[in-house]
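Protein modeling request. Please complete all fields; requests missing the sequence field cannot be processed.
Requester role: graduate student
Desired output: 3D structure, token encoding
Chains: 1
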Amino acid sequence: MLVLAFHNRYYVTIINEIRDHMTKAIGYIRVSTEKQEAHGHSLDAQRVKLEQYCSLYDIDLVRVVVESGSGKTLAREGLQNALKALKSGEADALVVTKLDRLTRSVVDLGKLVEGPFKKNALLSVGEQIDTRSAAGRLVLNVLASVSQWEREAISERTKQTMQHMKSEGQYTGGIPPYGYDLVNGELFPNEGELEVLKIVIKYRKRGYTLKAIAYELAEAGIASRAGKPFAYQGIQRMLAA
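Delivered output (241 residues):
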């Protein structure tokens, strides 16, 4: 009996030592819409993936933080709760099913990488990211850089398209520029407004300030689209269009 008791204590000690050296992780799962629930992003499906991942890689899943809401901001109660757990030492890693459960913003991901994940690990099941290794940190940085490039490329293409549409006289959204009317989605010259624009440009070439131009228009009885005297901000927008 003494030998058996000794062996039991020995095995318990060994198991405790193994647990002490295991990575302790806080799981974080999130859904923002019912549509995500219907496409395999349900909270239960995410929880199962985290449990399987942690079991496979001998990670101690301390607890799972559950959140429902948009990922547009980091100011989310559940996420902040998970990050506080890392800071307090309750765990040394955060595990998610995919990076987009954490954030969809490259800027916010960068803040997390330079903040809490500088000392603690980030584990992502979907992208197979494990920042406990140099290779994992490299993959995360590459993904962040590619996402940033994609966002900037899309922005550039959008600007080029908008500029081309504007040069062709096509409506690009918002209030039509001064001097034009919107008819069935297309811009057409407004002769009356174009005459006012000519006057404004003439005064501007003479060195008049925006406020001085607004005063001259008011003196001449020329009103804005709203039927009110022009303010200098309106003159500024008119010239920038």
